[in-house]
Amino acid sequence: MYNSVSEKDWVEAAHPVSQNVRSDIAGAGCDKPYFEPLIPEERPDIDSPYFVYFGRIHEDKGCKTLIEYFKHFKQKSSNKVKLVLIGKNFMNEVDTSDDIIYTGFISDQKKSFYLQNSIGLIIPSPYESLSMVTLEAMIEGKPVLVNGYCDMLKKHIELSHAGYAYFNKEEFCDSLNKLFTMTEKEKAIMSKNGIAYIEANYNWKVIIDKYKYVIENITKP
Fold first, then answer.
1. Is the Cβ–Cβ distance between 204 and 29 less than 8 Å?
2. Who has the most CB within 10 Å: 2, 109, 205, 215?
3. pLDDT at residue number 32
4. Can you tell which superkingdom this protein's organism belongs to (predicted)?
5. Angstrom distance (rounded) from CA 198 to CA 202
6. Residue 192's domain is classified under what CATH number?
């Protein structure tokens, strides 16, 4: 039982198996969370459009490159888009500015607010095995921009059609521009794609049914 298509391909390329060996993609379930709405006094004070990153603020997670790429994006454009970094800082320095906001660790309620009101999620990590934050963004109908060198993340995008993958600084900037300038119709299509992908592949009922089938048939030839 694999987390993703990429994981299955990687394992079976290293350890070829017989066609008779049963396998499936299971991963983990992702339900749309519900939180009580924040009262006005608790809402983050941000009045500009923004992209968001969730997770450890760490160079190994691609955060140093993310900041570098985003600064390049801002140098090329005159828009008011910002980048919000949410998570514990593990880097010596976080390059904050008027365009890059670091919140530190915040409640799930505030994290949900930031995601729901963002343009989309950015995942710069080159190493992921499933990426629950990607699934969480898609179930909320938000597009995701991912590091194309992470095959698993790239596969999520290819299968869902709910975002973009980038391989260099210029592709990163082009993708941000595409997401920022999407029409309402394009946003609705991408949102629908992401939700449909999660419901078809990472809904808890779908995953539990897969495991039930495996357990019930494990002794059958």
1. yes
2. 2
3. 83
4. Bacteria
5. 5
6. 3.40.50.2000
